[in-house]
């Protein structure tokens, strides 16, 4: 019986998601993108054993001194990275065009050079003079910061051989191409080969490598997903165009936590780390306003107080509008159903608008209670007061569920001057009871109906805010 022949790899591959097919089609069958299928060259197989780069050693004898993280000079970035830049690490920073990726990395490069660590910044999207102008504006001129504009991989490796940096910044990976690899710059084959060569070089020379990556229309990282597997750290740089606030989130981190976030202020003079961003998400008004409530969200291990605003009006159409900004629309729809079923708040004939203040993204379930209270407050035209925070997840039966890191959230609320907090009850025997915690009066509630009753949503004085 004849042996079954090996199946040849598909000659066409999607440049967006890496989907493979035997024949060319106009639309990718995986990500549904148009015109992204490109022909790739057949891979060369290697079956013979070759020389090893380093002899295998017992794990306890592997030296770790050369892989200790060093500070980048930007504390918020060090917080996200888990301590700083690790020699030999490959970091991928992705974000929308114009969000400030190049400005952030130029600041990191300048701070690294200021600490007497030689840095090489290679740009493929701008000229060296354009980057120099930005460095003049942001105060990034340093003797140990080297700058060049290149788009060829061989030239990039030549610069590394000549400068011998400890930090290498590539802006961006989609603009670098290898002359001996088929495909256009930014294509699947080119991005994979160029990234693999740069990462291999960084590991061998113990250089911290930072790659800038483009994003697609839906906000995901452009190029093959294998690029995210090759690097050690994947960071997303995000922010609203109308706001100066920028955030760095870790989506993958082999050297630290993946639930941290760093906050920055982007202006014409450069980018500055914000070590205490809580006040950015609170309204500056001093008087009580109906339709507002303060939530305490956890961004990584950092508690952030964020204000939720709601507007409820009678609808002029048969299908009332449900509009959200910074809040999950599906979560708001669920909260409206819970309010109608378990609290008697009927909003089926009203338009409901819910928004967060300052560009904050409130996606945590712990914000459910604050969103619900803001909606009911707007519906009744009755203020909760300026000194009340609400923390808790709403269940479909109307109960309030415990959330993680409650003590940390309440401590932050007390530090910011809030006097009262509504939180889920730890046990049925504690419902309605209050306790003092760091000057904060904490009231336990078990259901949304109990919370509304205790907060005086029927026109009575609030028993929580009055404390």
What does this structure look like?
With 467 residues, the protein is of the alpha/beta class. The chain folds into two domains: 69-275, 3-Layer(aba) Sandwich (Rossmann fold); 280-454, 2-Layer Sandwich (Ribosomal Protein S5, domain 2). The protein is built from ten helices and 22 strands. It has helices at 75-81, 101-114, 128-138, 153-163, 188-205, 226-230, 329-343, 368-380, 406-415, 448-454, and strands spanning 12-14, 20-21, 37-39, 90-95, 119-123, 145-149, 167-171, 208-213, 233-238, 245-253, 261-267, 270-273, 292-299, 302-314, 322-325, 350-356, 388-390, 393-394, 400-401, 420-424, 434-437, 440-445. Helix 2 crosses helix 3. It is elongated. The protein starts with 11 loop residues before the first strand and ends in a 13-residue tail after the last helix. Mean pLDDT is 86; it is low at 459-467.
């Amino acid at each position: 019986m004849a042996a079954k022949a090996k199946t040849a790899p598909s000659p066409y591959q999607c440049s967006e998601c890496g989907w493979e097919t035997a024949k060319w089609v106009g639309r990718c069958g995986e990500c549904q993108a148009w015109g992204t299928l490109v022909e790739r060259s057949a891979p060369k197989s290697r079956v013979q054993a070759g020389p090893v780069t380093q002899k295998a050693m017992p794990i306890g004898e592997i030296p770790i001194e050369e892989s200790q993280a060093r500070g980048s000079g930007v504390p918020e970035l060090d917080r996200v990275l888990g301590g700083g830049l690790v020699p030999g690490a490959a970091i991928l920073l992705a974000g929308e065009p114009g969000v400030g990726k190049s400005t952030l990395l130029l600041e990191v490069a300048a701070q690294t050079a200021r600490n007497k660590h030689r840095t090489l910044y290679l740009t493929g999207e701008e000229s060296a003079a354009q980057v120099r102008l930005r460095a003049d504006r942001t105060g990034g001129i340093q003797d140990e910061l080297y700058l060049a504009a290149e788009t060829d991989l061989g030239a990039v490796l030549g610069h590394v051989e000549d400068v011998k940096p400890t930090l290498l910044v590539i802006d961006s990976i989609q603009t670098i191409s290898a002359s001996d690899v088929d495909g256009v710059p930014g294509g699947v084959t080119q991005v994979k080969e160029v990234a693999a060569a740069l990462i291999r070089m960084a590991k061998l020379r113990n250089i911290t490598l930072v790659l800038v990556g483009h994003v697609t229309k839906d906000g995901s990282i452009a190029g093959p997903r294998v690029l995210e597997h090759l690097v050690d750290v994947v960071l997303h740089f995000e922010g609203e165009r109308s706001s100066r606030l920028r955030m760095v989130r870790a989506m993958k981190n082999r050297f630290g936590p993946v639930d941290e976030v760093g906050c920055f202020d982007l202006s014409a003079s450069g980018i500055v780390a914000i070590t205490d961003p809580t006040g950015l998400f609170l309204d500056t008004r001093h008087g009580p306003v109906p339709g507002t409530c303060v939530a305490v969200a956890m961004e990584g291990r950092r508690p952030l107080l964020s204000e939720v605003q709601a507007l409820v009006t009678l609808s002029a159409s048969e299908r009332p509008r449900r509009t959200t900004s910074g809040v999950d629309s599906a979560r708001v729809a669920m909260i409206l159903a819970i309010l109608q079923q378990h609290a008697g708040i009927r909003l089926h004939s009203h338009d409901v608008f819910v928004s967060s203040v300052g560009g904050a993204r409130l996606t945590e379930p712990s914000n459910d209670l604050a969103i619900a209270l803001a909606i009911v407050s707007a519906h009744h035209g009755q203020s909760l007061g300026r000194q009340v925070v609400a923390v808790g997840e709403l269940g479909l039966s109307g109960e309030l569920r415990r959330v993680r890191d409650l003590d940390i959230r309440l401590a932050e609320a007390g530090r910011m001057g809030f006097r009262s907090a509504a939180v889920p009850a730890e046990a049925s025997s504690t419902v309605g009871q209050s306790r003092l915690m760091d000057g904060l009066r904490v009231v336990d509630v078990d259901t949304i109906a109990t919370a509304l009753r205790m907060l005086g949503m029927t026109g009575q004085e609030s028993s929580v805010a009055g404390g």
